[in-house]
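Anyone? Bumping this.
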Amino acid sequence: MRDVAIIGVGETKIGELWDRSLRELGIEAGLKAIQDAGVRGEDVERMYIGNMSAGKLIDQEHVAPLIADYAGLSHIPSTRIESGGASGGMALSEAYKAVASGMNDIVVVGGAEKMTDVGEDEAKKILSSTADQEWETVFGATFESLYAMMARYHMDKYGTTREQLAQVAVKNHSNAAKNPNAQFPRETNKDFVMKAPVVSDPLGMFDCAPLSDGGAAVVLCPVERVDEFEGEPVEIVSMGEGGDTMAVHEREEIGTLKATQRAAEMAYERAGLKPEEIDFAEVHDNFTITEIMAIEDLGFFEKGEGGKATEEGKTELNSEISINTSGGLKAKGRPVGAVGINQAIEAVHQLRGDAGQRQVEDAEYGLTHNMGGTGASAVVHIFGRWS
Amino acid sequence: MAIARFWREIKQRYKGIGVKCGNCGEIFFPPRDICPECRRESYKKMDEYELNGTGEVITYTRVEDPHPEFEDLCPYVMAIVEMDEGVRLTGHIVDVDYDDIEAGLEVEASMRKLGEDGPEGMIYYGYKFWPIDSRRGE
Amino acid sequence: MKTKDDVGIKGYAGYVPKYRIKPEEIGDCWGEDGKTMGRGLRVESKSVPSPDEDVVTISTQAAKWAMKRAGIKGEDLEAIYVGSESHPYAVKPTATIVAASIAASPHMTAADYEFACKAGTAAFQTCMGLVSSGMIENGMAIGADTSQGAPGDALEYTAAAGGAAYVIGSEDLLAKIKETVSYTTDTPDFWRREGEKYPQHGGRFTGKPAYFKHVTNCTKKLLERTGNEPDEYDYAVFHQPNGKFPVKAAKKLGFSKDQLEPGLLVTHIGNTYSGSVPLGLAATLDQAEPGDKIMVTSYGSGAGSDSFDIEVTENITDVKEKDVPTIEEVTSNEEFVPYSVYAKYRDKIEGGR
C-alpha cells in the first residue's frame, strides 16, 4: 500500500442553481480541482463520481462517463459510485484504494447532484428511497420521520433536549456565515430554529439539511509523486468503512450509528490515532440529531453526551473539537452525492491553513464522516497536515 | 409500486408472516433466507412463523410533512414497534391521540390501506397498529 | 326456504371506524337546519371512515374477531362472501383480499355480493345453504360498507361506515338460524350506475313502496312460516336506514321498541348499509342469553328483504368470555370531525390529494 495525498480541490457554490446542469456542476468542480493540483488532462488516469440518484433526479444514468466526456477526458475509465448520502465519501475511498494499491497514480474523484430539476416533494421522496422502501417508506415513513424517531429515542434514553438539537443548527449556520460557497451563509438563533414548522416531531424545518445542487472534486496522487505537481498536498492518513442494517427498526440500539462506529474504529486503527488527537471534523449533519449521534459514535464524546457537549459549546469553531467548520450539510448545503467530497475539500482547506475566517488554529488532523440513508453505510477519512 | 412487487409480500403485509430459524429458533420479520447468526446451517431451514400481532412502541414521531400520497392522513403517527416475538418493525399508529403515545405503549396490528397507485391503480393493504385498548371501550 | 336443524352462527364480530360527524356539521355546510334534519331522521351522529379504511379493512378486522369467537382458523373456512355496495374495486373481489388476510385461502370459494343494503344477509343465506347441503363445514358471511351520499344530498346525514362478520356452521353454534325467508321485487328506489361515485334515489318513494312493503311482507311471511307471534321474540332487528323507519315498521308488525333497542345502532353510527343488520344483530347477540329468540329482517333497495328466525344457545356464554370487543366497546371510541375533515376523508374535495 502506498501513501496517498490530495493535491487539488475544487467545488461549485452550493444552492438552488437553476441555471446549471449536472454536467456543468461536475465539470466546473473537476476543472477547478485539476487546475489547483497543477495536473494536465493527460495526467489523469481514472475518474470516480459520487452521485446518489441522477437516474431519478434528472433521468440520466451512466453519469460518470458523461462528466468525463464533457471534461474532455472521454478516453479515461470513469465510474459512478452510489451509496446514498455516502456516495461522495465512498467514491473517495474507491479512488484512494486505486491509488494506494498502485493501480493508478493520478485519479480525479468528483461528486455531483442536481436536486432541483424535480419538485421538492419528488426530491424528498427520492431521498427517502435511500431508506428501506419495502419495510419503511411504504408504510408512510419519510426520511425525516426515521431520523425523528432516532431523535425521540435519543431524547428518551439520554435526556437530549430540543434546545440541544437547535444548537447544532445555530452553530453550523454560524460557521457557514464564514464560508462563501455555503448555501446559507448566515447566522440564525435557537428561537428561530425551534419555532420553525414541524416536519416530523421533534424535528422542525431548520433541523433538516436543504435540498441542494452542487459539484465537488479532488485530485489524488501517490505521496511519492507529489513533488511533480504544483498543488499543495494534504495526506489521506487513513480510511474506514462500515455497514449497518438497512432499516432503522432492525438496529439493536436506535440511538447509535453502528456503521459510523465501525468505520471510525477502522480509520483510527489504521491511522494509529485516537479521537482526542483529531482537531476538527466534518460530520454528516443531514439532521441536527445526526450530528449529535455522530460526534458520540465517532468517539469525540461519551455516548449520550453529544447534546450536552453541543450546548456547552465544545463543538464550536476552535473549542474542544471544531465540528462542521464548513457549515455542514445543514448550512453549507446538501448536494447529496457531492457531500463526501465537499467534506474532504473542507479538510484540505483547514490543513493547508487557507480556511480564512473559519480556520481551525494549528490543525494537524481532521476527520470526515459521510453517511448513507439512515446510516446503513458510512465512511470515515482522516486527513493530516503535510509534513 | 409494481404489482408483482407488492403481491410477493402479501403474506407479510396482511398477516405478519416471518420466519423462524430451524437451527437456533430465532424469529425474523421480514423473512430472511438465512439466519444472520447461523448462516449456512440455517439455509433451507427457515420456517414460516406468524407473528401474533401485538407489541409495544419503542420510539415514535408525528409526521407533519408527508410524501404526497399520505397527505390526506396528515398529521399521522409513525412508530417503531417491538413485537412480542422480539422482532421490530416500522408502522403507522392509527386512532391515537399523540399526547397519549409514549415508549412502552401496547399496540395491536390491524389491516389498513397503505396506499394506491392513483385512483385507477392497485390498492395496497397492510399492517398498521392501534393502541391495544382503543377498541376495548377503554 | 328450508334449512336443516343444525345451521347457525358460530362466531360474530363487528367493526365501526372511530370518526363521527353530527348532522349540525353537515347542515352548516349546506345552509340547512342540520339539527332538525337529524332529529327527523333520529340520527345524532354517523360514522366516518379514515382515508385508510374501506370495506376490505373493516371486513378483515370483523372477520378476525369473529374467528376468534368461533375458535376456528382461516383454513377451517371453505367459503367467504362479502356483501357491500362500496367494494373498493369495481372488478377484483373484496373477498379474496379478506380471505388472504385471515389465512383462509387458497382451498376455499369466495365471492362479492351486491344488493344495496342487504348484501350482507344475502351472504348469510348462501353460507347457510352451503352448510345445510353439506357442501361445507364453515363459511363466513360479511356485510360491510363505507357508503357515500353526494355532497348536499339528504343521504349525507346518514350514509356511514361499518360492518360485521359471521362464521356460519353446523356445530358448536352460539345461535341457531331456524328459518329464513326472502321477499324480492323489481323496485327502483335507490341505485348507483356503473362508474358513478354517488347513488341516486327516489326520495319519498324509498319509503312506503320500497322499505315498508318489503320489510313487512317478508317479516309476515317468516312469522307465518314459523307460527311465531311477535311477542314470542326477545329481540328484533330491522334494517336501519334512519332511526325512524325500523321503529315504524316494527310497530306496524307488532314488535315493541324494547325488542329493537339493543340492535338500534343507527342513532349514533348512521346507516352502515350492508353492515346495518349484521351490526344490529351483533349488538343484540352481545346482550342475549341462552334460549333468547331474535327476529331479523334486512332490506336492500332494488329491492328485497331477508328475514331470519334465530334462537340463542348456551354456547353464547363461552363466546362472551373470549377477548373480543362488543359492539358497544367498538363504537365507544369516538372522535367527532368537522365537515371539512369529513370532506377530505371521503374524497369530496376535487383536486385534493
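Late reply, but here is one note on the structure posted above: Residues 10-15 of chain B form the longest helix (6 residues).
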